[in-house]
């Protein structure tokens, strides 16, 4: 399949201005984004397993290059560069997840083949041993018949022939006992093979349950609109889910918190860090307590729904960590938010 090639607009612009003495504008954040994107482009795993995510990062990088070339503000360029790096991180994590899933499937198939080969070899060995024992019994019976004929023909040697016949019968009994032991061993091997088959079926069923649990967890995270970041899965409650300039959750916000509580009740090993953020309007003396109250409001709602308080940590950051420009109404609305960071299965959360 033909692969798409993405050339950042900054490279095209640099080629067009190669004859000019004026150097193109520079931006450290954009340079970092280009480096991260270039590194991902040279990773075959990312290129093959996360092409759409990588394409999206390339498109965002082109927008950042265009914004720099047009002389847009550093905030705009930095935001696009940051978004590019986040999209590259998503592509890398997607590739890792798909590679891990493929490895699990391959390992399971190889394990099944090895177990089947072992059971087949055990059964074949038991069959051969039983066949050999039967041959020995047949030979012993033939020798007993010859001895009997000799006894009838040689009356003078009747006593010796009778003694030999008794010995032969003893050998036959011994070999019959060996045959029975071989039969019991074959039966035991068959039972072992059946037990291994049952264990294999149980392992397969457990794997299916594990896959179903993973799929269910992914669906629940999609319903919560969780996003993968370098700190883990993050759920964002926007400004519209709170009363204006208040810390009370709106009905929509309550529904989102209920979904989160259901998820946490189902996965008790998970913890959350709740961070409140505001835009840059207003003073820090107003924004800081507002960001803390909004984070505490989400914590209270979770505790009311049965989530233990020792699984919840809150922070208020006011306007310290914007995700968009505070120069526009749309950007300020994006900055007024509560972010909920989910821990991994061991309860660990990456700090800022």
From TrEMBL:
Ribonucleoprotein in keyword set: no
Keyword terms, alphabetized: Cell outer membrane, Cell projection, Cilium, Coiled coil, Flagellum, Membrane
Primary localization: membrane
Keyword Membrane applies: yes
Residue ranges that the Swiss-Prot or TrEMBL entry lists as coiled coil: 123-227
InterPro entries xrefs: Bact_OuterMem_StrucFunc (IPR050330), DUF4398 (IPR025511), OMP_bac (IPR006664), OmpA-like (IPR006665), OmpA-like_sf (IPR036737)
Domain OmpA-like, chain residue ranges per copy: 229-346
Domain of life: Bacteria
Protein name (record): Flagellar motor protein MotB
GO CC terms, sorted: cell outer membrane
Entry's localization field: Cell outer membrane
Organism ancestry: Bacteria, Pseudomonadati, Pseudomonadota, Betaproteobacteria, Nitrosomonadales
């Amino acid at each position: 399949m033909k692969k798409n090639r993405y050339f950042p607009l900054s490279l095209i612009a640099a080629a067009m201005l190669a004859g000019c003495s004026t150097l193109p504008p520079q931006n450290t954040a954009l340079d970092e984004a280009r480096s991260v994107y270039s590194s991902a482009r040279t990773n075959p795993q990312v290129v093959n397993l996360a092409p759409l995510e990588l394409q999206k990062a390339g498109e965002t990088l082109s927008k950042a290059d265009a914004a720099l070339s047009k002389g847009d503000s550093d905030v705009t360029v930095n935001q696009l560069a940051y978004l590019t790096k986040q999209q590259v991180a998503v592509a890398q994590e997607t590739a890792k997840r798909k590679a891990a899933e493929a490895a699990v499937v391959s390992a399971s198939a190889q394990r099944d083949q090895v177990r089947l080969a072992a059971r087949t070899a055990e059964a074949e060995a038991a069959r051969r041993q039983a066949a050999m024992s039967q041959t020995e019994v047949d030979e012993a019976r033939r020798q007993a018949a010859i001895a009997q004929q000799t006894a009838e023909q040689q009356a003078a040697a009747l006593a010796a022939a009778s003694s030999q016949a008794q010995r032969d019968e003893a050998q036959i009994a011994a070999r019959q006992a060996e045959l029975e032991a071989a039969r019991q061993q074959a039966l035991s091997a068959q039972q072992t093979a059946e037990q291994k088959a049952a264990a294999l079926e149980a392992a397969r069923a457990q794997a299916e349950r594990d896959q179903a649990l993973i799929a269910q967890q992914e669906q629940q995270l999609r319903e919560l609109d969780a996003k993968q970041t370098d700190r883990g899965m993050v759920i964002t409650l926007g400004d519209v889910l709170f009363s204006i300039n208040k810390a009370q959750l709106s009905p929509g916000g309550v529904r989102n918190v209920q979904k989160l509580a259901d998820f946490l009740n189902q996965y008790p090993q998970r913890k959350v860090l709740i961070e409140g953020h505001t835009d840059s309007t207003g003073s820090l003396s107003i924004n800081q307590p507002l960001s803390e109250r909004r984070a505490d409001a989400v914590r209270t709602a979770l505790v009311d729904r049965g989530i233990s308080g020792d699984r919840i940590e809150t922070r208020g950051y006011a306007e310290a960590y914007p995700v968009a420009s505070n120069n526009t109404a749309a950007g300020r609305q994006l900055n007024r938010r509560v972010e909920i960071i989910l821990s991994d299965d061991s309860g660990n959360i990456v700090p800022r």
